């Protein structure tokens, strides 16, 4: 093979399989979620029906909330209360190591797949704005844990109906949502790091080693947790929204 042919092949896609299916699926699912979440946040309505609160609006911090969680923002806030908190889980997912790989390959085609031509002519990595903000991932993780506590609290409140203690399909939906988001958060690489990944030796920290080992096992399925929790949180908002609109009715077990 001549040097000219070798140079040409370096800039060609030689794969014959359907390598484009995975990037396309990521564009459809991740892009669809972003569109739906943005639309839901702008609605500023149908996010609460007793005792269920949509995770897109939790915790509800503005006084204009249909279901106020914490009165941290006064009546001067006249926008959707979702904008006060969605930037936290949104930033956490956008800076997640797995999601970076997924949307770099799918939306930016950089690179689309192994042995596939890169769409970008120049590569600067994450050394320029706005990709420098990826370094904030661990801080988004800390904030997302706070949001997660409130989501578990919402799941507990989902047993408290206006007429008393009970359980409905929505109760299960909110519990599963909090559980899946917990798996996604705990399996995060930042969680693995702070649980003990930064230590040079576990000899003097046996408890830290056990926690790190547990998180490391979760980390093996971080990709699966990322997608399942993403889809479920959108379905949870949709379930609460349809209930509030009267399109569907909640099945009560007791």
- Spell out the helices and strands N to C: HHEEHHHEEHHHH
Any low-confidence stretches, pLDDT <50, length ≥5?
1-9
Got a strand count? 4
- Main β sheet profile: 2 strands, antiparallel
Give the distance, in angstroms, between the N- and C-terminal Cα atoms.
74 Å
Shape: globular
Query: How much helical structure, as a percent, in the residues?
Result: 40-55%
Mean pLDDT: 90
Radius of gyration, in Å, reads 22 Å
- Label the structural class: mainly alpha
Number of domains: 1
Largest sheet, spatial ordering of strands: 1-2
Strand content: under 5%
Tally the helices: what do you get? 9
Give keywords.
two-stranded antiparallel sheet, 254 residues, mainly alpha
Question: What do these coordinates show?
Answer:
The protein is globular and about 65 Å long. The chain has nine helices and four strands, in the order H-H-E-E-H-H-H-E-E-H-H-H-H. It has one domain. The termini are far apart. The longest helix is centred in the C-terminal third of the chain and has 24 residues, at 222-245. It has helices at residues 3-9, 21-43, 87-94, 97-106, 137-157, 169-186, 189-197, 206-219, 222-245; strands spanning 48-49, 52-53, 160-161, 164-165. With 254 residues, the protein is mainly α. It has a two-stranded antiparallel sheet. It has a two-stranded antiparallel ribbon with strand order 3-4. Helix 2 (21-43) crosses helix 4. Residues 1-9 have low confidence and may be disordered. Helix content is 53%, strand content 3%.
